[in-house]
Amino acid sequence: MHRQHAPSHRFAVRVYYEDTDAAGVVYYANYLKFCERARTEWLRALGFEQQKLREERALVFVVRTVEAEYLKSGVLDDALTVESSIAEIGRSKLVFAQTVMRGSERLFDCRVGVVCVDWNKRKPASVPPDIRALMAAHPDTHTESHR
Amino acid sequence: MHRQHAPSHRFAVRVYYEDTDAAGVVYYANYLKFCERARTEWLRALGFEQQKLREERALVFVVRTVEAEYLKSGVLDDALTVESSIAEIGRSKLVFAQTVMRGSERLFDCRVGVVCVDWNKRKPASVPPDIRALMAAHPDTHTESHR
Amino acid sequence: MHRQHAPSHRFAVRVYYEDTDAAGVVYYANYLKFCERARTEWLRALGFEQQKLREERALVFVVRTVEAEYLKSGVLDDALTVESSIAEIGRSKLVFAQTVMRGSERLFDCRVGVVCVDWNKRKPASVPPDIRALMAAHPDTHTESHR
Amino acid sequence: MHRQHAPSHRFAVRVYYEDTDAAGVVYYANYLKFCERARTEWLRALGFEQQKLREERALVFVVRTVEAEYLKSGVLDDALTVESSIAEIGRSKLVFAQTVMRGSERLFDCRVGVVCVDWNKRKPASVPPDIRALMAAHPDTHTESHR
Lengths: 147, 147, 147, 147
Prior knowledge:
Strand content of chain A: 35-45%
CATH architecture of chain A: Roll
Mean pLDDT of chain A: 89
Structural class of chain A: alpha+beta
CATH superfamily of chain A: Hotdog Thioesterase
Helix content of chain A: 10-25%
Largest interface: A-C, 21 and 21 residues
Oligomer: homotetramer
Number of helices of chain A: 3
């Protein structure tokens, strides 16, 4: 799952008690929360708010697939960074490649497949051209399949 | 906050990793999740599902106040019981008295004030007479104020 | 990711408000909570508690990989079932195949790779023979690789 | 529960899907997460990390009481601010007054009683003089009882 390019987006996450569990580390499902925050902030940085996308364009991004690898454990008080890139862009599907770093240590790697859904019809919709153009503009974006 | 009467409803909760934190105990906000599950199951036991209440009668129960006391810490694998009673019933407001027990040990005590809200008008609504009647039927329900 | 056999373990999960999000469905990370509860309950049903495994044998099960597919959305008040099987057993690694069902509808499919770790040395340890024997006893367990 | 003074500490919180529920608003227990993050960041801003306090001084802050009032609902994408002050300082107990604001709107008010605990003896310990001095230095800190 290693990525060669610079990430397109970086997002800082601090580890609080709520994120940890009795094994003393970040609970495994919570890395998905960190990654979702990062995707949301990336969209926001590009000018899109999910609440507005739903209200104004009836569009929702829905997760369809996750492939994740847990490499090292995050702990309380860690200052983490979520690095995000687009690995694939299809008509209605985006695949994000995301990594949670602690400094130069790689803690967590994932690929998250997200589908753009028409909120009223509950069916897949095309990724809006403006979002697609902005995300594709990032240098490490590649549209070919990843395997 | 001690309650004299037998609880009106008992609900079993198991403590999983997701509920604990790096201090090795149940994270403080999660007792509110346990209590919400118990209130929901009590309503369900009386014949009411929250999803249906919203869809069919446009009614939602919204928490307005919480007073909570943390007495002992729950830990991983604990088998807990949430004991629930009604402390007060007003026109649109219910106050639940809830306790989280581990066997005979009292871990957590709370009073949760819940208001019945008209989902369309976003305004307080009367607690439906059928719910009120069922809850008031419980022997330890008292309608006088608790302070 | 389809599984042919009867699951080795079934675990009931109810969907509460805490599990849902503003899109009206179960939040995507929470299916991993449901699956972790099911793995824990399966271990418990076989006679093992995670807290005791850590205290008495210094063993912890740590998630290393997750592959997940979101097929349909769970909603508030859903009565779900997590079906769990062992897909692979290695020396120190177990791969669980887990599915979240709503009646006969398949909502969520995952494979979760778990490594048995020596809590003191923080290194992989062999899956204890007693746990291995009990899990392997289940009819649908297969030890060959799944791809 | 209204506070007259300027808060001693402000902390920004963004509302993500993980924080919301199927009623379309921030789930009630999650305000306690926001407030715990804010207390942690305040301590950190004063030079204290909870992980280090536990490792180096065997001190943990444990919540004993919560009194909370839900005034308005936060929704997805909200940019919130947690305002925190010290309402009381006792020998081993601190009471925080915390408010979650959305711009000038007050969403949530709470008082959180926290006890300083000796992690080894599992008994209350004095609030370290250096922490006490720093917190008491804030202009709105008052040591008299709040009722």
